[in-house]
């Protein structure tokens, strides 16, 4: 459809005004991109990158802190555990100590009580013996006086006879006493 | 593609059926007469007007986006940031390298965003013409690209060093230089800008012609013919027009991408490869080793 | 009618020439893309480099097609 035969090559021959306008527009575009658009966009992009980097650093730091805290807590926990076991050991030792103490105290007390009781028994036995002897003597005297009243008128003979009687009785008593003591001690 | 078959057969039939023709687009569309300030160096025609309007749109939209940019991006800001990220990561850093590429991010972003928006003019209703669809717009972008790779080479090696590196590449027997040096000189001064310019321009031209042809035929089949026999062909050409419109959007992005990645490659070639090479070797050596370790583990 | 038809045909000869001129670059681009894809499949870790190199090569080859495109408008 080339209506004018000569116009084909005109497509490739630049017109002056076309070149002028193209140059003006290109200059405007270059200036706009180089001085305004790219710096502004780059600023925003850099700022964003920086912000993201900052966030990541912050997150890393927080994590580090958390880890430190955790290890500290673990340390503390371990300390507390060992302390508790220490305390338990101590308590156990003390308890056994106390038990020993109590046992020895109880032992000594028991011994004391036994000794006291023995002493009291001894004393009572002695008292009872004395009392028995007195009574026995009186009864024997009375009995003997009744029996012997007719035979022994004078007091002298009477008391001599009683004394000798009592002596012989005492001897018997002593021998019996020693035999009972020996059996008791065993 | 079926629609083209339909289109051609239908045109054949139509030639037989009537003398009338669809109002096909012509290359006149790309040579509009100046409408304002005609005769001065500041004359404005239809395509220049589209270009100015799209420039204003870029300035306003991206300016507002940049001045309202927040740490937590809105949806639109995310889209823009995705585009920026794409240019930075997959074009500049991939091709030039991260350290050396930093100073060229702005340049490549300018080229990518501007060309993409200008190309999209081809599918915007009432504009229906890419702002890059005269030879001058791709030409000045290509010259900007040329300026950048020359500046990069001269900054890296000095003028003499840059020319020596480009014209007399190392490791080639000297007689070849007699052929190679002129070819390389033409390559870096003429062929690169020429191919950048014409590639973009030709894509926009053919895209507009294809879409226009499909829609003109649709109009003709549905409305201008007296008979309704050709209506099925009209449906086909309408579908073709829709497909071509989608294809135009794809081509708009693709051409912007190719223009940017070629500019980045030219800059990278001007800079030379020494430090870059080692980086890549290390990373390549590390990767299989890591894979091997993973497998053996 | 005969002359008119001939004139219509002669108007399209440029296009025909462009079609012929595009054949070679088309084949070359197909080969390049295929090889680049193969290499990418073999070594996915250098996909970025391969893509860039492929695009560079295609840019070289495409110049031929673009030249033809321009020449088809030159009268």
UniProtKB/TrEMBL annotation, chain A:
Major place of residence: membrane
Compartment(s) of residence: Cell membrane
Cellular component aspect of the GO annotation: plasma membrane; proton-transporting ATP synthase complex
Keywords carried by this UniProt record: ATP synthesis, Cell membrane, CF(0), Hydrogen ion transport, Ion transport, Membrane, Transmembrane, Transmembrane helix, Transport
Compositional bias segments (type: Polar residues): 175-186
InterPro entries, per the entry: ATP_synth_B-like_membr_sf, ATP_synth_b/b'su_bac/chlpt, ATP_synth_F0_bsu_bac, ATP_synthase_B_chain
Segments passing through the bilayer: 19-38
Function field: F(1)F(0) ATP synthase produces ATP from ADP in the presence of a proton or sodium gradient. F-type ATPases consist of two structural domains, F(1) containing the extramembraneous catalytic core and F(0) containing the membrane proton channel, linked together by a central stalk and a peripheral stalk. During catalysis, ATP synthesis in the catalytic domain of F(1) is coupled via a rotary mechanism of the central stalk subunits to proton translocation. Component of the F(0) channel, it forms part of the peripheral stalk, linking F(1) to F(0).
NCBIfam families found in the cross-reference section: ATP_synt_b (TIGR01144), PRK05759.1-3 (NF004412)
Record-given protein name: ATP synthase subunit b
Organism of origin: Aeriscardovia aeriphila
Lineage of source species: Bacteria, Bacillati, Actinomycetota, Actinomycetes, Bifidobacteriales
This protein's encoding gene: atpF
TrEMBL record, chain B:
TM segment ranges: 43-66, 104-124, 130-151, 172-194, 200-222, 229-250
GO molecular function, a single term: proton-transporting ATP synthase activity, rotational mechanism
Topology in membrane: Multi-pass membrane protein
Secreted found in the keyword field: no
SUPFAM superfamilies: F1F0 ATP synthase subunit A
InterPro entries recorded: ATP_synth_F0_asu (IPR000568), ATP_synth_F0_asu_AS (IPR023011), ATP_synth_F0_asu_bact/mt (IPR045083), F0_ATP_A_sf (IPR035908)
GO cellular component, one term: plasma membrane
A Pfam family of this chain: ATP-synt_A
Cross-referenced Gene3D superfamilies: ATP synthase, F0 complex, subunit A (1.20.120.220)
Primary localisation category: membrane
PROSITE patterns noted in UniProt: ATPASE_A
Annotated signal sequence range: none
Subcellular location: Cell membrane; Membrane
Keywords linked to the UniProt accession: ATP synthesis, Cell membrane, CF(0), Hydrogen ion transport, Ion transport, Membrane, Transmembrane, Transmembrane helix, Transport
NCBIfam families listed in its UniProt record: ATP_synt_6_or_A
The protein's role, per its UniProt record: Key component of the proton channel; it plays a direct role in the translocation of protons across the membrane.
UniProt family annotation: Belongs to the ATPase A chain family.
Protein name from the UniProt record: ATP synthase subunit a
Gene source species: Aeriscardovia aeriphila
TrEMBL record, chain C:
Record-annotated membrane-spanning stretches: 15-32, 53-74
Alphabetical list of SUPFAM superfamilies matching this protein: F1F0 ATP synthase subunit C
Keyword Ion transport: yes
GO cellular component terms listed in the entry, alphabetical order: plasma membrane; proton-transporting ATP synthase complex; proton-transporting two-sector ATPase complex, proton-transporting domain
Domain of life of the native organism: Bacteria
Membrane topology annotation: Multi-pass membrane protein
Chain ranges of the V-ATPase proteolipid subunit C-like domain: 16-73
Keywords: ATP synthesis, Cell membrane, CF(0), Hydrogen ion transport, Ion transport, Lipid-binding, Membrane, Transmembrane, Transmembrane helix, Transport
Site (Reversibly protonated during proton transport): residue numbering on this chain: 62
Family assignment from sequence similarity: Belongs to the ATPase C chain family.
Physiological role: Key component of the F(0) channel; it plays a direct role in translocation across the membrane. A homomeric c-ring of between 10-14 subunits forms the central stalk rotor element with the F(1) delta and epsilon subunits. F(1)F(0) ATP synthase produces ATP from ADP in the presence of a proton or sodium gradient. F-type ATPases consist of two structural domains, F(1) containing the extramembraneous catalytic core and F(0) containing the membrane proton channel, linked together by a central stalk and a peripheral stalk. During catalysis, ATP synthesis in the catalytic domain of F(1) is coupled via a rotary mechanism of the central stalk subunits to proton translocation.
Protein name, entry field: ATP synthase subunit c
Organism: Aeriscardovia aeriphila
Gene: atpE
